[in-house]
């Protein structure tokens, strides 16, 4: 006979946190959001990799490329670069994150000596950069011949036909530094010589990058950066259960820090085989998350298989139509609560703590606090990160407002059928489990994440918690009734921004 769960399948919107006692020491500035990313013997050892903020970006074409990975690692989270691309291009993205040197900028406004002042002005207007290196072939890696800044030309006195070679500051007058220069030394040179920028060149005098004066504080202003032992940004990558024997070695070679099997349904032999392959070839040196599951059984299966962390959630994603298409899934709150209990039971039994991640369905910032309170160690977000400048998708104007494009991995646009693979021959068997959509543009990731986390810290203090562990321990959750949801929003008032203004003199 079929099994029926006692609990209805509930979403985050059906819960609220009831505040606990907040001692005077419990202030947002004192809150730590550090959280374990991979399995460890809690209480006996340090977790080998912890996130500094409990947010990771979804394994999706519209969300996680190398640009997103750098931006999120700067804030203390981690991106999982999407796997629905060739092995070469995914490994190249990972390598670009690992090679990224904060403060060392690859110039995108480059001049050749025979360009004209008119072209310089045009490029400056288009890209907004006032410092442009001049190279022999006009590329970002050509032999350095000089630099043009606003101090090199005066539009009122010069002809627009004048050649760059005639007014640039030539190479012999430039101060440059070799590739081995650290950011600290580069900044000292900039400081000592009162420079605005410092070109970094290789042994053949070819341009490698530029360091700008304004980046001087980049490390100091990002105290949460996720750095490896070589001070490189940390990055994850999505893999599938088909081509792992080729994909994983390429990603490891590129320097990936953590892998995650990207699948809509993780309670399967395919995931077990993939984890076993990793253990056989790399032991515990390669970390690998798995999922997604929505109940205790699924968790136990993947924990026993050796997954380093386990993702929770089926059908809750904003672009997801899996529940409609296949009738599988579970409310994100109920799934998180049950899997968290299974994670705690597993820890009690084995002494091994396997972090869990609530993936999909986070709509409001307070959903993050709820997910953490319900036992999630961190959350994976797609829609949330797709809205920022740093996501790889296009920014477009729709009905007078800026939007970013956002599409599911199971949509016809992404064609990531491996994510839904159940083995066997897939020819002609594909159907969509996701949609193509717009999400409102939300500016810079740094500002968005700062605002979101200030709310999370504030909620934690209301619950008397200074750490995520404490929040999970102390949180008191209540189910809301449909009428109390109405009470929770602004009600029985006319909102000023939705009501035409009438002055008290009738004008
Ligand atoms: P969101 O944060 O609510 O937008 O959900 C993002 C999550 O949805 C991802 O991390 C995936 O787990 C899931 N997802 C991504 N693409 C699809 C799809 O096409 N169909 C179903 N789920 C998807």
Automatic annotation (TrEMBL):
Question: Locate the CBS domain: which residues?
Answer: 104-167, 168-226
Binding positions for K(+) per the UniProt entry? 315, 317, 320
Q: What is this protein called?
A: IMP dehydrogenase
* Cofactor(s) the protein requires to work: K(+)
Q: Which reaction does it catalyse?
A: IMP + NAD(+) + H2O = XMP + NADH + H(+)
Q: Which is a Pfam family this sequence falls into? A: CBS
Gene Ontology biological process terms, A to Z: GMP biosynthetic process; GTP biosynthetic process
Residues of the signal sequence?
none
User: What organism is recorded for this protein?
Assistant: Paraeggerthella hongkongensis
PROSITE patterns registered for this protein in UniProt:
CBS (PS51371), IMP_DH_GMP_RED (PS00487)
Q: Does the keyword Metal-binding apply?
A: yes
Q: Where does NAD(+) bind?
A: 262-264, 313-315
């Amino acid at each position: 006979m079929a099994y029926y769960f006692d609990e209805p399948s509930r979403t985050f919107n059906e819960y609220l946190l009831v505040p606990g006692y907040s001692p005077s020491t419990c202030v947002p500035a004192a809150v730590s959001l550090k959280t374990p990313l991979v399995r460890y013997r809690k209480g006996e050892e340090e977790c080998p990799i912890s996130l500094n903020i409990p947010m990771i970006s979804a394994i999706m074409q519209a969300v996680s490329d190398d640009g997103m990975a750098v931006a999120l690692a700067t804030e203390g989270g981690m991106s999982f670069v999407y796997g629905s691309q060739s092995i070469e291009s995914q490994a190249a993205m990972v390598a670009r994150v690992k090679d990224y040197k904060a403060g060392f900028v690859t110039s995108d406004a480059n001049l050749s000596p025979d360009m004209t002042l008119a072209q310089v002005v045009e490029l400056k207007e288009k890209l907004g950069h006032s410092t442009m290196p001049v190279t022999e072939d006009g590329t970002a890696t050509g032999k350095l011949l000089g630099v043009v800044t606003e101090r090199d030309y005066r539009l009122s006195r010069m002809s627009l036909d004048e050649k760059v070679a005639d007014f640039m500051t030539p190479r012999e007058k430039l101060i440059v530094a070799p590739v081995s220069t650290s950011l600290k030394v580069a900044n000292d040179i900039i400081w000592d010589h009162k420079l605005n920028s410092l070109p970094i060149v290789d042994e053949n005098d070819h341009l490698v990058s530029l360091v700008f004066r304004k980046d001087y504080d980049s490390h100091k202003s990002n105290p949460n950066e996720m750095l490896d032992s070589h001070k490189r940004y940390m990055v994850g990558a999505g893999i599938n259960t088909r081509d792992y024997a080729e994909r994983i070695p390429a990603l490891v070679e590129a320097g990936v820090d953590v892998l995650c099997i990207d699948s809509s349904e993780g309670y399967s032999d395919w995931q077990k085989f993939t984890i076993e392959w990793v253990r056989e070839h790399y032991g515990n040196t390669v970390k690998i998350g798995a999922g997604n599951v929505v109940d205790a059984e699924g968790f136990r299966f993947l924990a026993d298989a050796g997954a380093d962390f386990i993702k929770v959630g089926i059908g809750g994603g904003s672009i997801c139509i899996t529940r409609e298409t296949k009738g599988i899934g579970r409310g994100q709150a109920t799934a998180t609560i049950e899997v968290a209990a299974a994670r705690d039971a597993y820890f009690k039994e084995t002494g091994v703590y396997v972090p869990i991640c609530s993936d999909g369905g986070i709509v409001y910032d307070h959903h993050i606090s709820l997910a953490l309170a319900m036992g999630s160690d961190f959350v994976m977000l797609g829609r949330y990160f797709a809205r920022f400048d740093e996501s790889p998708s296009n920014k477009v104007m729709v009905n007078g407002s800026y939007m970013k494009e956002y599409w599911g991995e199971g949509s016809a646009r992404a064609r990531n059928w491996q994510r839904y693979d159940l083995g066997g021959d897939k020819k002609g068997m594909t159907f969509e489990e996701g949609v193509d959509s717009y999400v409102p543009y939300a500016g810079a990731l740094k500002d968005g994440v700062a605002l979101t986390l200030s709310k999370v810290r504030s909620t934690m203090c209301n619950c008397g918690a200074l750490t995520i562990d404490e929040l999970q321990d102390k949180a008191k959750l209540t189910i809301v009734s449909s009428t109390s949801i109405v009470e929770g929003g602004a009600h029985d008032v006319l909102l000023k921004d939705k009501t035409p203004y009438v002055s008290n003199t009738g004008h």
